[in-house]
Every structure is written in structure tokens, then in C-alpha cells.
Amino acid sequence: MKLWDKNTTTDEMISNFTVGDDRELDLALAGFDALASIAHVSMLGKVGLLSADETQAIKTELIEIYHSSKAKKIIIDPESEDVHTQIEVLLTNRLGETGKKVHSGRSRNDQVLVALKLYFRDEIEQLVQRSKTLFDTLSDLSHQHRNVLMPGYTHMQVAMVSSFGLWFGAYAEALADDLRSLQAAFQLANLNPLGSAAGYGSSFPLDRTLTTRLLGFQDMHYNVINAQMSRGKTELALSFGMATLATTLNKLAMDICLYMGQDFGFISFPDSLTTGSSIMPHKKNPDVWELIRGHCNRLAALPVEISMMIHNLPAGYHRDFQLLKDVLFPKIQILKSSLDLADFMLRRITVRADLVTQEKYQYLFTVEEVNKLVLSGVPFRDAYKQVGLDIEQNKYLPDYKIHHTHEGSLGNLCLDEIKAKMESVLYTFDFDSVHDHINELVKTD
User: Fold this and answer.
1) Residue 438 resides in a domain
2) Which is more confidently placed, 170 or 26?
3) Which of 188, 208, 258, 410 sits CB 3.0–4.6 Å from 404 for a disulfide?
4) Pick from 167, 126, 169, 131: which is nearest to 149 by CA?
């Protein structure tokens, strides 16, 4: 069955091509389509398009479908084009003529669009939660290793003294910054398109303010054409947020792959978290981090791929949008898995505490020596030249005692301030309000 079926039959080859992978991908949307339909039916009852008995009967079945979806008990029959068709079929089978009334006042276009908005909103919350978990781990590691020195690099050359506390803390703060990009995607996903129908509204007296409130949306897309134009744009915003997170994970993974190598030897993980070689018995390969790096490189390309799919389309719905699910849905799951694995690995990391005492790192402290001379009154250029000459004449000896005090430096990691930054970003998502509205929507009397 197709929601647009009349008395004609679509060629099987055409049907298979146009349906694509929707039956598999749409399982992720089942619960969200049910939620949107509950709100829609509640509104239809309020404006008099359904009787009170019809409204209650349809809502009861939709709530059951919603819970079945949460328990992963929904299947899409081969005869159904997608999950939206499947749910209407279930309602019609259970309620007869009453079930057929659920589609009044909407198109499959806004039905799909609102389910996607709810799905993206939920997935963004899961990404934020995982980012916060990883943030906490990095913050704890930063505090734990705040006094353990390590080399810092510029141009891949030994440059200045750093610390594991500074290194871990950098990635913690980066995650807090990254969530600002994800917040932009959340704001766009948190706008209600329901009631825009095929993009040109409806002659029914719909109450879009009511469905906006019932579904816990912050606001609505007011102009119905603009509501349809948000298809693709929401996905693009989400892809940018995901790519931003992936950039941080990618850089962290690259650091770890380098630092695990024998030439560095900065960090290690338990043997159970690494893999070996089929020919070299001494190898401990960072396969998890290499795969995270590879996945994140692909995620970095996601905004470009989505842009290429949507940027030559005029206003209105186009079947091209269906392909966005193929691109985006699996990538969301990959990013969540990468965040989970990064946290799992980092909770088991071991750092080397005596790194900077090795002779090859003695020049890490030259800038410290220059600064000491400047603080004693020597002009900077003279101090720089004096230390440089000492190095050339083999007179330079490193002083391993350092004293940094400014914000964000080795001696002042500002971990409390970074945690406050993360909390301020998290506050802007207001997931609790969303939960309250959804819980109220599926509550049974």
C-alpha cells in the first residue's frame, strides 16, 4: 500500500527504486511518527474534524504503537511503502473507517518532515549526552595529570613544555565549543512544520500552535513554504554540528596514534584494547583510534555531500530529499559509537610521567629560560640571543621547574571555568522541557 494509491498500479521496478532503503531506515522514525500523529489527532479533535470518541480511539492505538516502537517491536510489511504507511495501515486494521481519518489536514510531506524533526531532536540529545560524558572523562584526566609534563609541538617539531593536564583539558574545552554548533542544529530541528501539508497549507481550520505545544517544539515554521524548505536545511545544519564534533575527535585520535608509537611512547592502553600483528609479535596497534580517525574524516565530508544534494533544488518537495536519510542516519550512529569508544578507551589510558627528563627534550625549556631573564630586567631580544648563544656553545642546562599562572596555562588550567562553559551550553538545549511535553502527550488517562 502507498498513501497516494488510487486505482493504478506502479511498476515493480519503479516501486523498488523509489522506495529504496526506506523500510529499513524508517524503523528509526516509527516512534516519532506516532508522536506527531498523536499531536495531530488531538488537534483534529479540538477543531472538530474528529469526534471525541474517534480522537480517543486513535490516540489509544497510537500510544500503543509508540511504546511498541520504543520496544523495537514495529516491523514494516513489504506491502507498505514506508513507516508512515505502515502506521496508517495498523490504525485502519484496528479501527476500520476511523483509522482512515488520521491523515486529514496533512500531507505525507509534513508528516515525514515532523517525524524527522523529532528524530533529529532526539539524536542531538544523545550526541550531547555522549559529548558530556567524554567531556567529564577528559576533565578528570586533566585534573589527575595536571602536573605531569610532556612535550608540546609546532610544525611537528619539539617546541615548548606542555602537560598532560593541558592536553586533556584542551579537548574537554573543544567539546564544549563544539556543542555550540550542535545547538544551532537543535534550534532548527526544534521548530514545528506540521500543518504545512504539501508546502502550501490546508483549507482545514488547523491549530498549529497547539501541535507545536503538544510536541514540545520551541516554536513553529510559520510560513508553510518555508516549513518545507527546512527539509535539507535541517540536515545540513546537523551535519555541520556533527562534522565539528568529528574534527575534535579526529585530532584527538591522531594525537593518540602518534603518542602510542614507540618513537613517542607518551601513553599506553591495556593489551585488551589494542590489536596485534600477524607477523610482528611486538606490535600493539591503535586500531580503535585509527578507525575513529577514519570515520571522523568521512564525517567531515558529510556537509559537502548534503550540500551537493540540496543546493540546486527550487522551493517545494523533491524526491531527492529521501536520499538524505541514506547519508545521514548511519553517520549519526557512527558518531555516537565513536564518542562511546573514545570515552571507553580514555578511561583506561596510562601516561608516562618522566618524559621531559630525556635528553632529547631538554630544549623544551629554552623559552622558560628566556622569560626568566626578561623578568629579571633583560630586554627580550637580548635574552633570546643570550640563550641561543648558550645553546650553540653547549652551555645551556634546562631548569625543569616551571611557573605559569595566567588563565589556561600549565599552572592554571581553568577547569572550573571550562566546566561552567559546558554547563552554560548544555542549559541552552532545555531537553527537560521536551521530555515533559512528550511524557504528557503519551500519558494514558
Assistant:
1) no
2) 170
3) 410
4) 167
Count of domains forming the chain: 3
Most confident of 28-32, 206-210, 268-272: 206-210
How far is 158 from 152, CA to CA, in rounded Å?
6
- pLDDT exceeds cutoff 70 at 278: no
Q: How many CA atoms lie within 13 A of 295 on its CB side?
A: 25
* pTM, full prediction: 0.91
Q: Which of 256, 211, 238, 240 is nearest to 120 (CA)?
A: 238
CA distance 74 to 67: 9
| Other Cβ atoms closer than 10 A to 190 | 22
Cα 176 to its chain centre, rounded Å, is 12
Q: Helix 30-46 crosses helix 108-144 at what angle (to 10 degrees)? A: 130
Tell me the CA distances in angstroms from 131 to 164, 173, 175, one per residue in order: 20, 11, 7
Question: Which residue range(s) make up the domain with 292?
Answer: 109-194+225-357+414-431
CATH number for 52? 1.10.275.10
pLDDT for res 283: 60
Measured from the Cβ of residue 279, the count of other Cβ atoms closer than 10 Å reads 6
Q: How confident is the model at residue 24 (pLDDT cuts 50, 70, 90)?
A: low
pLDDT at 70 over 90: no
Let me know: does 235 contact 324? Beta carbons within 8 Å. yes
> Does one domain contain both 182 and 279?
yes
